[in-house]
């Protein structure tokens, strides 16, 4: 249970946003007369263009949820016998559920189903071959954050997979950014601000999320003076940047905590910092977007404090209550270094390799990085664990009344054809908001609770560059980009593991991650409406529009360093997550909501032989929560007679 008086960066994200937890589905290599659904040479991580929620992954689910479609035609049963467990969703939580069930039932037959063409959920691997060199990056779930806070269950699973947390200390090159004089910068694009400019200063501290990056030597006064803003905006921005220590002193001591929790951040800036210039609010709005899926205009002052936004400093937390409370400090004692080169996709790969050793060679966290994975072997009929991609589950029902049934039927659609498998048990490790559509027999209260997990859309665009000479020339380590389509730009993390690593030579390839969160046109738009509008925008955008945004942005930002997008970009992968962070509202800060009545707790209740996993069910956007919820879901399955 979260300590409601301790506001940490992780706790904020935990309580407001459930995870990048998703559903991805595997191929079929059926040796029982069925055509193979994925060929041996088909390799999803190497695909470019629109990925994430890629074309073909969501159409069936949308027909079910948006139009209420229920007739999928003649249903075929391709597998000759029942499974002991069917898992809906092959993200980290679904894979972990299969792992835990297999540990307790070594002879169990397990089938995992996913609607995407790759496994891992939001733990997406992007892979490129650039001039003979393999380059890796993450298309979603990025890191093992604060592993010292992991539960015994989650930590034990990762250890069993061969993950050694100490290994990341030597794998992450803390000196890379300093060695190459790469700094955090704010990029002002030419279209919005009249002239493109890079200011080597950021309004939030990026050194937490990019360990080792060189902090700016500029003072706030020097930085603001270099920004392409009017004199009035500069004066107000500087007042916000330097006046955070006593920003709450005018509020009565007993009322400060309540004021911070109930007052919108932008209202706080107007009331306490006397800010009203539109350029100031435009500059601040996108700062928290990559962490929250929202703009700063929808956050409370307390949430802004947790994210260290300008205007109220961590030193001011003692002013929030009549008695100073050290528990309101930002607690980030573990460095943000626990990255595989492909993010948490390597955790998904470790799970798949343990469950299906015939898919890939190796046994360590290092060798999984470059281990060849044979997707054509994921769904072998002679394997006790099978993973079936490109398969969207549309219905899960007990074969009879839930309290008396002894098995479950799972119907899924592949290439517009319906199939059904039967299993003794079923774990739903998919988007929680889809579950009411999949399981019509759930109680209405539970369906209503599950629907509260509305997900915020976001995009991780991975750009493969032939070299990083221009990046070195302009000294860019990471960028905040107010006004730009992509609000953040990050370089490949300097991780060296398993024979793979970032090169010190600027003539060699580099991966750049560009993050876009579709914010509403109108400030203050309620988050759920903002998310709806954002999803519509993303689904309406063809790849060419993303490509143009990338090229224009990088040409504008790196042009003075000699960058030319048509020459220097090798490939672009747009990881479009129309359903990314899951939003729960501000329940973390609401003492009136009893934990057992929280939406995610009500929504995850088991029913008969069906249980619910996924990080959505734990209201925390982290790998450990995905694992913990998988463990809980497996323990809640009834013991078979």
TrEMBL record:
GO MF annotations in UniProt: oxidoreductase activity
Signal sequence, renumbered to the chain: none
Domain of life: Bacteria
Protein name: Twin-arginine translocation pathway signal
Species, as recorded: Nitrospira japonica
